[in-house]
Amino acid sequence: MTLPTIPKPRTRRGPAPKQPPANAADLIRDLAADGWAILGIAKRLGTSKDTFARWLDQNPDLQEAFDAGRENERYALHNMLYRQAMEHGNATAAMFLLKARHGYREGDQSQTGGRVNVTIALPGAMTLQQFTSIGAKAAPSAVPTIEGKEIVQ
Predict the structure, then answer these.
(1) Which of 3-7, 14-18, 50-54 tops mean pLDDT?
(2) Where are the alpha helices (DSSP H) in 59-127?
(3) C-alpha angle 150-130-119 in degrees, rounded to nearest 5
(4) With the C-alpha atoms ordered 94, 96, 99, 101, is the resulting torsion angle positive or negative?
(5) Average pLDDT of 70-95?
(6) How far, rounded to the nearest angstrom, does the alpha carbon of residue 150 sit from its chain's CA centroid?
């Protein structure tokens, strides 16, 4: 008689997953604010892009630091562009802000302004009997036929 085998619980093989350094949140915030890409931040932290993504997924503080850094970068760039447009009369910066933030479009808009948008709502799938009953109610004199034969309802 053979004894049943009891499966062993799976254990993780290999080294323990790499953990972020103690100052990771501050470093991530600073690097993201300086415009570093995800791959560059990961390399600066001494890890791979995938491990860095796992850290962000598993640690809300690191994700928040990354988001705050990116927002700081966005604010600095927007502020610089705004100052160029408003204080220095930079027309290119002004046009970019108009397009990006206010939906401004260049060129002749007359071609797009006169277009008509038609939406046709079709009913769901019907059997032939359901379809012909609707047609008979709408126009009783028009009885549907197939190849010259009247459809019996």
Answers:
(1) 50-54
(2) 60-87, 91-102, 110-113
(3) 115
(4) negative
(5) 93
(6) 53
Look at residue 78 and give its three-state secondary structure: helix
Whether residue 23 is predicted with pLDDT greater than 70 in this model: the reply is: yes
Q: Which residues are paired to 150 by β-bridges?
A: 145
Give the pLDDT score at 116: 77
Q: Where are the domains of the chain?
A: 24-107
Query: What are φ and ψ of residue 22, in 5° steps?
Result: -60, -35
- 3 state DSSP class of 149: strand
CA distance 36 to 112: 40
Contacts of 25 (CB under 8 A, 6+ apart): 61, 62, 64, 65
Q: Please list the helix, strand and coil fractions of the chain in percent, rounded to the nearest 5, in that order.
A: 55, 5, 45
Q: 153: which residues sit within 8 A by CB, 6+ positions away?
A: 129, 132, 133, 136
Instruction: Say what angle helices 60-87 and 24-33 make with each other, to 10 degrees.
Output: 20
pLDDT at site 144: 56
pTM of the model: 0.59
